[in-house]
C-alpha cells in the first residue's frame, strides 16, 4: 500500500471519507507497516478502539502547541531518546549457559516468552537485516503464514514498547523484506564463565544450535 520510505510515525484523522483512520491503521498493521500510529479526532469516544490497533497516542482536535510538544516527547521516548544517564539505560546480557537479560541488576520481565526469544534472535544476528520469512521459519515454523506474520508484527511491537517503557534506546528497523535490531551501545555482555557452556543453553531454542560458532 505504501512505498518503502523510512517513516517515523503516521498521523491519521479518524473521520476520513471511504475509510476511517482506524480501518486504515488495521490495514497498515496487517501489511507490516509497523511505525507508530497517532490518531486525531474531535470525538473522545474513539479512544478505546484506537488503542486496540496499537496506537501510540490519541489527540483531540484542535491540536494545540502543548499537544504537539507532548507528542514529540512520546515519539522520542518510543525511539529510545532519553535524558537519563546512559548507565541507567544499559542492559546486562549473558548469552551462554544460564542466559539472562538484566537492567539495574534486575531481571527483565518479558511480556511473553516469544518476545524474549525474538529479542535474542535479533541480538545474535548482530544488527544485520533478517528476512521476515527466515524469522518465521525459525520462530514459528509450524504456524500458518498469515498467523505467523501477525505474531511477528505483534511481537516486534511488544519489544519496542518494552524498551520504550524502560528508556532503553534499542530500536528495530524495518528493511526491504525484514527487520534489523540496533542496540546503540546499550548492552554489556557478560563473559562466558565455563568453556562448556552453550549459546542460550538454558533457553533451548532450536535455531540457536545453528549459531554455536558465535
From TrEMBL:
Gene Ontology annotations of biological process type: regulation of DNA-templated transcription
Record's GO cellular component terms: cytosol; protein-DNA complex
InterPro entries (UniProt xref): CheY-like_superfamily, Sig_transdc_resp-reg_C-effctor, Sig_transdc_resp-reg_receiver, WalR-like, WH-like_DNA-bd_sf
Entry-annotated residues carrying 4-aspartylphosphate: 13
Keyword Membrane: no
UniProt KW keywords: Cytoplasm, DNA-binding, Phosphoprotein, Transcription, Transcription regulation, Two-component regulatory system
GO MF annotations in UniProt: phosphorelay response regulator activity; transcription cis-regulatory region binding
Major location (coarse): cytoplasm
Pfam families, alphabetized: Response_reg
Localization terms from the record: Cytoplasm
Response regulatory domain location: 1-76
PANTHER family per record: REGULATOR OF RPOS, TRANSCRIPTIONAL REGULATORY PROTEIN YPDB
Protein name: Response regulator receiver
